[in-house]
Each structure stands twice: as C-alpha cells, then as structure tokens.
Amino acid sequence: MGVRVILFVLALLGGAMPAAAMDLAICARAQGHPKHYVDSSGNPKGYAIEVAAEAVRRAGYRSRILNFPWKRAQKTALDGLCIITAFSVTEERKAKYLFSDSMFIDRVLLWQAAARPFPFFRFEDLIGKHIGIPTASYYAGEFDRVRPQLNLFEDSEKQVSLKMLIKGRLDAAIIPGDIAAAKFLARLQGVDFAQLKPSDTPISLDPNHIGVPKNLIGFEAAGLTEKLNAALAAMAADGTTRAILSRYQ
After folding, report:
1. Are residues 197 and 143 in the same domain?
2. DSSP readout, 216-242?
3. Rounded distance, CA 82 to CA 219, Å?
C-alpha cells in the first residue's frame, strides 16, 4: 500500500517523474519530401523528423511526431504544445523561441524552366519576377532583404509550383531540400524533371534548427535546448546525422 501511495504522489508532482518517462511532441510539416512528410501508410518520415526524434531520444524523452500543415504546426508550437523541427532562425521568431544548434544545412535552390532560363547572379535579379515559394517559409540571408520586392506565390500544401512554372505562370520556383526534393515534387506534379533547371546560385544555405517555444508546457525551455544541443553534437560526432541524411539523398 505504501508503494502505491508513493507512486500516486510522484504522478501528481509530475516534475518528480524521471525525464525518460516523459513524452515530447515534435511538430513537423506534413508535406515536403524528403525532408518531412507522411508516407502512404500514414507514418511520419523524412530526415528532419528522424534527426529531431533521435536528438529527443538522446536527450532522455520519448518523441511523438505531429505532422501538420506548416501554419498549423507553427501555431501548435506557439501554443506551447510541441517543439518544431526544420526551423529557420529569424528575428521575429527569436522573441518566442529558443533554437537548438544547427541539425544540418539545407541548400535551397531556385528552379527555372529549362526552356526559359534567366540570369540569376544577384538577388536583385529576382525583382519583378513571379516566384513560387512554400507557404509560410522564410530563409536566412540575402533573400529576406529583397523579399518585399518580389511577386511571391505561396504554394499551398497541394504543391503545384513546378507545374505552374512549366506552364509559364511562374518565372521560377523556390524548393528547399536540394535536388532530391525537386525530383520528388516533379514526379508528384507530373512534370518531366528534364524540363527544369536549377540555378547555380542558391537562395540560401539554410541552417535547420529545432525550435523550442519559450512557453513550452511542462518543460523548461533553456534546459531542454541544452540537452538537445548535447544530443546533436554527439550525433554529429558519431556519424548518426550523416547516416540519416544519406538515406534520403
């Protein structure tokens, strides 16, 4: 009877339970192969999910993946219900999130129709162009400086920007996730990959982080971020992160 009482008190205290017994939800974008997506059986997949889940495991928690449309994923995180993977640092986000060290660096490419290429050496070359971009996406670096001067089409979760590009309705499309992501999206949208041409100049070499909301319910954000950083450093040192990335290339 005494043991039962002790266990009941520990359950009420919550914080007295060992960290390994706690679930930690990870919000991820539902679409965005090969970085984050849901497979045909409804299982979460993607290198951004796998790296974050392994970091959470090494930090001493059980991960629970929540795949949502990107805006909903961010809202869920801001409500303090999850951390969020594949997150870029922006000044606006710094007010509400702590950020882990970089999990990996993504090459974000500008794709053009091979039949209608245009010079792209400086970001000013994009001014006046109609460009597809994933909904609610932001990229570190020079792109943010010229973004207000661009005609951006925010591609929905339906992911139609490459099809619009080939039909001449867009001048270019921004695709994160390097060539592997563009090949997948071309197949998804029924576009011949040979009709596409990547720019030599990347839009961004985008460090991807785990975003930890400062109001994360049930966790102390700074302490959790430190644990995730230690886990990510160990994963980089022992080759785990590289092994995960290589499976999706």
Report:
1. yes
2. -TTS-HHHHHHHHHHHHHHHHHHTHHH
3. 10
Task: Read off the CATH number of the domain in which 144 is found.
Answer: 3.40.190.10
What are 94-142's pLDDT values in tens digits?
999 999 999 999 889 999 999 999 999 999 999 999 999 988 787 767 8
Strands, E, within the chain: which ranges?
A: 23-29, 37-38, 44-45, 62-68, 83-87, 97-99, 104-113, 130-134, 151-155, 172-175, 196-198, 204-213
In a 13 Å sphere around the CA of 89, the CA atoms on its Cβ side amount to 12
In a domain, 6, yes or no: no
Residues 142 and 179: their CA atoms lie apart, in Å, by 21
Question: In terms of residue numbers, what domain contains 147?
Answer: 105-205
pLDDT of residue 157: 56
Around 122, how many Cα atoms within 13 Å sit in the side-chain half-sphere?
Answer: 4
Q: How many residues does the chain have?
A: 249
**Whether 213 and 177 share a structural domain:** no
**In a shared domain, residues 66 and 50:** yes
Residues 113 and 201 in one domain: yes
3-class secondary-structure state, position 24: strand
Distance CA 70, CA 72 (A): 5
Query: 97 and 131, same structural domain?
Result: no
Residue 63: pLDDT band by 50, 70, 90 thresholds?
very high
As given in the structure block, the two tokens for residue 143 are 């792109």
140, 150: one domain: yes
What's the predicted TM-score (pTM) here?
0.73
